[in-house]
Amino acid sequence: MTMATRIAVTNKGMLQQLDTPQAMYDRPANMFVAGFIGSPAMNFFPGKIKKEGGKLFVETAGFTVAIPDERAKPYFDYVDKKVVFGIRPEDVKNPQFMPPNIHGEKMSAKVDVIELMGNEIYLYLVSGGNSFVARVDPRTSFKAGEDVQVALNMDNFHIFDTETEQAIR
Question: Domain for residue 62, yes or no?
Fold first, then answer.
């Protein structure tokens, strides 16, 4: 990503997205691009869009999170339909060190593995049978085997159509 002003991502010879590195990272066209750009790769959770009152939620096997109202409009057509919820590891936070002014939604998970990286910690977590990765503040003191709360930065989530794997926008 640091070597070009534009990148072409292909899969099996088919162009998936041609864009700036930052645009691909922030707004991947599909699940392939979302999983390809970024390290560690984006976390994916099979789920459904649910509606309660006028509010939308993403429901997965391990957690349910509210979609912020200002981002909800494109998902009303997907109520009660299967989707894939995507979130990058850096948007899975230790609630104790959550930045201010973001839409944080808490969820429960079990810590499987902790990888100390110096300036950050990679947590390998499990929730509802789904394994996923979090990049958290180095002051985090979670222990392997511990049941913890993490918070998802819902300002940076992605939702993909299960059949086409295209981003829903």
Answer: no
CATH number of the domain that residue 111 is part of: 2.40.50.140
Q: CA-CA distance, 3 to 19, in Å (whole number)?
A: 13
Q: What is the pLDDT of residues 48-78, one digit of tens each?
A: 999 999 999 999 999 999 999 999 999 999 9
d(CA 165, CA 34): 10
Helix (H) / strand (E) element for 21: namely helix 21-26
Tell whether the torsion through CA atoms of 102, 17, 136 and 56 is positive or negative.
Answer: positive
Range of the structural domain that residue 3 is part of: 1-38
Classify residue 79 by its DSSP letter: B
CA pair distance 20, 91, nearest whole angstrom:
21
